[in-house]
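TA notes, week 10

Several of you asked for a full example with nothing omitted. So below is the full record: structure tokens for the whole chain, then the designed sequence directly under it. When grading your own attempts, check the secondary structure regions first.
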């Protein structure tokens, strides 16, 4: 009986370790704090700002975003790191918005009939990166 309990405990610990070891923010290479969307891919009403450690405690993350200075990273560096393919772009209020698809990102949304999972908004001094899209304001 004792061996069964120990075995069950070890399996449980292994599963938890596997879950947390594989759960990291998509944008972890770029920032240590994230704005995340929980519960719903299509709503800005469930946004939280969290650290990387807090990210691990959130059960269902549907999207994340970070805001960086344009001096921190260029759009081309970001695209190269995430192996992203441009889907389309537009301009909104003087900001360039580009939508991409990356096989490195597990979730996505359909916009204009095409699947996107990476959204980059660029203005004069900031770059905001969102997966699958940016929720809230920039």
């Amino acid at each position: 009986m004792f061996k069964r309990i120990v075995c069950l405990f070890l399996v449980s610990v292994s599963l938890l370790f596997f879950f947390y070891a594989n759960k990291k923010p998509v944008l972890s290479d770029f920032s240590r704090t994230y704005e995340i969307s929980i519960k719903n891919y299509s709503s800005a009403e469930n946004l939280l700002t969290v650290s990387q450690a807090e990210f691990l405690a959130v059960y269902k993350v549907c999207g994340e975003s970070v805001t960086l200075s344009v001096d921190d990273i260029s759009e081309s560096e970001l695209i190269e790191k995430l192996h992203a393919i441009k889907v389309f772009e537009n301009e909104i209020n003087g900001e360039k918005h580009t939508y991409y698809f990356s096989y490195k990102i597990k979730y996505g949304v359909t916009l204009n009939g095409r699947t996107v999972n990476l959204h980059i908004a660029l203005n004069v001094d900031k770059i905001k990166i969102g997966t699958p899209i940016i929720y809230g304001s920039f």
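The beta strands are 33-38, 47-51, 61-69, 84-92, 95-102, 109-111, 114-116, 118-122, 126-131. Use that as a sanity check on your answer.
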